[in-house]
Protein backbone atom coordinates (compact mmCIF):
# COMPACT_ATOMS: atom_id res chain seq x y z
CA UNK A 1 0.00 0.00 0.00
CA UNK A 2 1.47 3.36 -0.85
CA UNK A 3 1.39 6.29 1.49
CA UNK A 4 -1.68 8.02 0.10
CA UNK A 5 -3.66 4.79 0.20
CA UNK A 6 -2.48 4.20 3.71
CA UNK A 7 -3.68 7.58 4.96
CA UNK A 8 -7.13 6.93 3.55
CA UNK A 9 -7.13 3.49 5.14
CA UNK A 10 -6.21 5.03 8.48
CA UNK A 11 -9.02 7.54 8.16
CA UNK A 12 -11.42 4.75 7.40
CA UNK A 13 -10.16 2.68 10.32
CA UNK A 14 -10.74 5.69 12.54
CA UNK A 15 -14.32 5.94 11.34
CA UNK A 16 -13.49 9.28 9.79
CA UNK A 17 -15.38 9.84 6.59
CA UNK A 18 -13.97 11.74 3.72
CA UNK A 19 -14.59 12.43 0.09
CA UNK A 20 -12.12 13.27 -2.61
CA UNK A 21 -13.88 14.38 -5.75
CA UNK A 22 -11.98 15.27 -8.86
CA UNK A 23 -13.22 17.87 -11.29
CA UNK A 24 -11.35 18.02 -14.53
CA UNK A 25 -9.54 21.31 -14.79
CA UNK A 26 -10.43 22.35 -11.27
CA UNK A 27 -8.29 19.98 -9.28
CA UNK A 28 -9.70 18.03 -6.38
CA UNK A 29 -12.45 18.95 -3.99
CA UNK A 30 -11.77 17.41 -0.61
CA UNK A 31 -14.37 17.02 2.11
CA UNK A 32 -13.94 15.77 5.62
CA UNK A 33 -17.09 14.41 7.17
CA UNK A 34 -20.17 12.82 5.63
CA UNK A 35 -23.71 13.52 4.49
CA UNK A 36 -25.20 12.20 7.71
CA UNK A 37 -23.23 14.25 10.21
CA UNK A 38 -22.24 17.12 8.00
CA UNK A 39 -18.93 18.14 6.58
CA UNK A 40 -16.51 19.72 9.00
CA UNK A 41 -13.92 20.91 6.54
CA UNK A 42 -13.54 21.39 2.85
CA UNK A 43 -10.82 22.52 0.50
CA UNK A 44 -9.75 22.53 -3.10
CA UNK A 45 -6.29 21.39 -4.14
CA UNK A 46 -4.48 20.71 -7.38
CA UNK A 47 -3.13 17.21 -6.83
CA UNK A 48 -4.29 13.98 -5.27
CA UNK A 49 -1.26 13.87 -3.00
CA UNK A 50 -2.12 17.35 -1.71
CA UNK A 51 -5.67 16.17 -1.13
CA UNK A 52 -4.56 13.25 1.01
CA UNK A 53 -2.06 15.37 2.89
CA UNK A 54 -4.76 17.94 3.63
CA UNK A 55 -7.12 15.20 4.80
CA UNK A 56 -4.53 13.77 7.16
CA UNK A 57 -3.92 17.20 8.68
CA UNK A 58 -7.60 18.11 8.81
CA UNK A 59 -8.43 14.81 10.50
CA UNK A 60 -5.92 15.49 13.25
CA UNK A 61 -7.26 19.03 13.64
CA UNK A 62 -10.93 18.10 13.70
CA UNK A 63 -10.76 14.70 15.35
CA UNK A 64 -7.86 14.98 17.80
CA UNK A 65 -9.65 12.58 20.14
CA UNK A 66 -9.68 9.81 17.59
CA UNK A 67 -7.41 7.30 19.23
CA UNK A 68 -7.20 5.16 16.15
CA UNK A 69 -5.76 8.03 14.16
CA UNK A 70 -2.33 6.52 14.57
CA UNK A 71 -0.22 8.21 11.94
CA UNK A 72 0.32 11.86 12.68
CA UNK A 73 3.64 12.12 10.90
CA UNK A 74 3.58 10.71 7.39
CA UNK A 75 7.25 11.54 6.89
CA UNK A 76 8.53 8.94 9.32
CA UNK A 77 5.33 6.96 9.95
CA UNK A 78 5.58 8.14 13.56
CA UNK A 79 8.79 6.24 14.18
CA UNK A 80 10.54 9.56 14.76
CA UNK A 81 13.38 8.53 12.45
CA UNK A 82 14.03 8.96 8.78
CA UNK A 83 16.71 7.71 6.41
CA UNK A 84 19.70 10.01 6.55
CA UNK A 85 20.00 9.90 2.76
CA UNK A 86 16.29 10.26 2.09
CA UNK A 87 14.81 12.58 4.67
CA UNK A 88 11.26 11.94 3.56
CA UNK A 89 11.38 8.19 4.11
CA UNK A 90 11.01 6.38 7.41
CA UNK A 91 14.12 4.64 8.69
CA UNK A 92 12.18 2.04 10.62
CA UNK A 93 8.86 0.26 10.26
CA UNK A 94 7.14 -1.40 7.30
CA UNK A 95 8.00 1.41 4.87
CA UNK A 96 11.60 1.70 6.01
CA UNK A 97 14.04 2.93 3.39
CA UNK A 98 16.06 0.07 2.01
CA UNK A 99 19.13 2.03 0.92
CA UNK A 100 21.03 1.02 4.06
CA UNK A 101 21.70 4.58 5.16
CA UNK A 102 21.95 5.63 8.77
CA UNK A 103 18.95 6.90 10.70
CA UNK A 104 18.39 10.58 11.31
CA UNK A 105 15.78 12.31 13.49
CA UNK A 106 12.63 13.07 11.54
CA UNK A 107 12.79 16.72 10.43
CA UNK A 108 9.01 16.97 10.77
CA UNK A 109 8.35 15.63 14.25
CA UNK A 110 11.57 14.68 16.01
CA UNK A 111 13.66 17.82 16.06
CA UNK A 112 15.79 17.72 19.20
CA UNK A 113 16.14 20.80 21.32
CA UNK A 114 19.39 22.68 20.90
CA UNK A 115 22.27 20.67 22.34
CA UNK A 116 20.16 17.61 23.07
CA UNK A 117 20.30 14.27 21.37
CA UNK A 118 17.07 12.94 19.95
CA UNK A 119 15.57 10.02 21.84
CA UNK A 120 16.83 6.70 20.53
CA UNK A 121 14.39 4.34 18.87
CA UNK A 122 14.14 0.82 20.11
CA UNK A 123 16.80 -1.44 18.72
CA UNK A 124 18.92 1.47 17.58
CA UNK A 125 21.84 -0.03 15.73
CA UNK A 126 24.06 2.89 14.88
CA UNK A 127 26.73 3.72 17.40
CA UNK A 128 26.84 7.28 18.58
CA UNK A 129 30.31 8.33 19.55
CA UNK A 130 31.16 9.80 22.92
CA UNK A 131 30.84 13.33 21.65
CA UNK A 132 27.17 12.84 21.07
CA UNK A 133 25.09 13.42 18.00
CA UNK A 134 27.15 14.94 15.24
CA UNK A 135 25.98 18.19 13.68
ZN1 LIG B 1 17.49 5.88 2.08
ZN1 LIG C 1 8.15 12.28 11.79
Main β-sheet: number of strands, strand sense, barrel status? 3 strands, antiparallel
Main structural class: alpha+beta
User: Count the strands?
Assistant: 5
Strand content: 15-25%
Which cofactor or ligand species appear? Answer: zinc ion
Lateral arrangement of strands in the main beta sheet: 1-2-3
- Order of helix and strand elements from N to C terminus: HEEEHEE
Please describe what this structure looks like.
This protein is an alpha+beta fold. It has two domains: 3-62; 76-111, no CATH class. It is built from two helices and five strands, in the order αβββαββ. It has helices at 3-13, 48-62, and strands at 18-23, 27-34, 38-45, 81-83, 103-105. The longest helix is centred in the middle third of the chain and has 15 residues, at 48-62. The protein is elongated, with a radius of gyration of 18 Å. Bound molecules: zinc ion (2 copies). Residues 73, 75-76, 80, 106, 108-110 line the site of one zinc ion.
Topology record:
Blueprint: H1 3-13, E1 18-23, E2 27-34, E3 38-45, H2 48-62, E4 81-83, E5 103-105
Antiparallel strand pairs: 1-2, 2-3, 4-5
Helix pairs in contact: 1-2
Q: Features of this protein?
A:
single chain, alpha+beta, 2 domains, 3-stranded antiparallel β-sheet, two-stranded antiparallel ribbon
Give me a quick take on this structure.
The chain is an alpha+beta fold and 135 residues long. The protein is built from two helices and five strands; from the N terminus they run H-E-E-E-H-E-E. A hairpin with a 3-residue loop joins strand 1 (18-23) and strand 2.
Amino acid sequence: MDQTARVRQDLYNSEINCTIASFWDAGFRVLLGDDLHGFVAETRVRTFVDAVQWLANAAVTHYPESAAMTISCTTCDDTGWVCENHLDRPWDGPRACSCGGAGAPCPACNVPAEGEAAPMPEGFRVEIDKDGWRH
